């Protein structure tokens, strides 16, 4: 292969996250609603019938389908399905920073405004209940921060003899922050808390 062909192949492609084709992709929406002329953020409580994370607090969202136009459409479609509203009732949809998790997933968060004249009828198969928190209250909150340490354990048969340092190789370890927000009897943590914190930082900056 000639150098010119190599340059042409690289020049005509858009860069992406290395290995991202093997990642599972999800989109979520941070829903803004107006209640008594004050902005609130809407949260879901996952159905107790769900196999994964039943009863946990989350934003509406889900996995990208092949039929979705893009990540934004996934967030809107999932919100529409979970809250029982029309896709057209969600406006001002804007992206936040996307996240690459250490567990092989990419999460694309968006904000969106749900028009107040559209009634919300949650899908009981997915949503146990919904609630809102005034944005003015959330902006005053500081989350508790806790840490999770990742331990590296190479599989049996790992070829230590092929790397410098062998079994004494100085692996780079990682620590992950977990945020906890408390509101009345609610606990918001995990991915939802990370996205909430990011959103609040953006509007407070």
Structure overview:
The chain is of the alpha+beta class. The chain contains four helices and eleven strands. The chain has helices spanning 3-11, 71-83, 135-138, 190-204; strands at 24-35, 38-46, 57-58, 61-63, 90-95, 99-100, 105-114, 127-134, 144-150, 174-183, 186-189. Strands 1, 2, 3, 4, 5, 6, 7 and 8 form an eight-stranded mixed beta sheet that branches. It has a three-stranded antiparallel beta sheet with strand order 9-10-11. The termini are far apart.
Show the helix and strand layout.
Elements: H1 3-11, E1 24-35, E2 38-46, E3 57-58, E4 61-63, H2 71-83, E5 90-95, E6 99-100, E7 105-114, E8 127-134, H3 135-138, E9 144-150, E10 174-183, E11 186-189, H4 190-204
Which short descriptors sum up this protein?
alpha+beta; eight-stranded mixed β-sheet; three-stranded antiparallel β-sheet; 20% helix; magnesium; CoAse; metal-binding
């Amino acid at each position: 292969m000639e150098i010119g062909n190599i340059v042409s192949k690289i020049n005509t492609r858009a860069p992406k996250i290395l290995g991202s084709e093997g990642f599972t992709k999800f989109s979520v929406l941070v829903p803004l609603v107006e209640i008594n002329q004050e902005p609130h953020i809407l949260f879901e409580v996952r159905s107790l019938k769900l196999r994964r994370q039943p009863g946990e607090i989350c934003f509406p969202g889900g996995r990208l389908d092949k039929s979705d136009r893009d990540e934004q459409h996934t967030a809107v479609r999932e919100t529409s399905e979970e809250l029982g509203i029309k896709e057209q009732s969600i406006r001002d949809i804007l992206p936040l920073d996307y996240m690459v998790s250490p567990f092989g997933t990419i999460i694309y968060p968006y904000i969106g405004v749900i028009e107040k004249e559209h009634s919300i009828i949650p899908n009981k198969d997915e949503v146990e209940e919904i609630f809102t928190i005034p944005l003015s209250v959330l902006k005053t909150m500081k989350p508790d921060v806790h840490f999770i340490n990742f331990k590296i354990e190479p599989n049996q048969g790992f070829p230590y003899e092929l790397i410098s340092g062998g079994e004494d190789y100085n692996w780079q370890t990682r620590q992950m922050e977990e945020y906890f927000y408390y509101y009345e009897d609610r606990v918001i943590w995990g991915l939802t808390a990370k996205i909430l914190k990011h959103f609040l930082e953006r509007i407070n900056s």
